[in-house]
Design brief:
Radius of gyration: 21 Å
Order of helices and strands: HHHHHEE
CATH superfamily: YheA/YmcA-like
Strand content: 5-15%
Shape: elongated
Largest sheet: 2 strands, antiparallel
CATH topology: YheA-like fold
Number of strands: 2
CATH class: Mainly Alpha
Strand order of the largest sheet: 1-2
Number of domains: 1
Oligomer: single chain
Number of helices: 5
Distance between the termini: 27 Å
């Protein structure tokens, strides 16, 4: 295992131990384990297909959309996901800003985006 592998594993552990990541996982689990929301999401996706086919929103779609997206579990999940994405983006920016190398009197930047989804 080279040094980069070791440092990457360390960073992975830092991320996994961060409360932001742990909160996201808890919210994700709560969403995935809620049968009512899973059923509503399936119905919403089916209704979305009808909307796309007809190119017109239906009252039923708007009602289901609002019911799903205003549910506290979904709201918490979306907020946790947004916070995690911001945290990972900050890590990516920090890494990118610190990966400048001088090669033949030229600056070369290597950017490694962290894209989980």
């Amino acid at each position: 295992m080279n040094k980069l592998d070791i440092e990457t594993r360390k960073l992975n552990e830092v991320i996994k131990n961060n409360p932001i990541y742990k909160e996201f996982l808890a919210c994700q689990k709560e969403l995935e384990n809620n049968e009512e929301l899973k059923s509503l999401k399936v119905k919403l996706d089916e209704e979305k297909k009808v909307v796309c086919k007809n190119k017109k929103k239906t009252e039923n779609y708007d009602k289901m959309f609002n019911e799903y997206h205003n549910n506290p579990i979904v709201v918490n999940y979306e907020n946790a996901k947004e916070e995690l994405n911001e945290y990972l983006s900050n890590i990516t920016n920090t890494i990118s800003n610190n990966l400048w190398f001088i090669n033949n009197n030229r600056f070369i930047c290597f950017i490694y985006p962290l894209d989980m989804w």
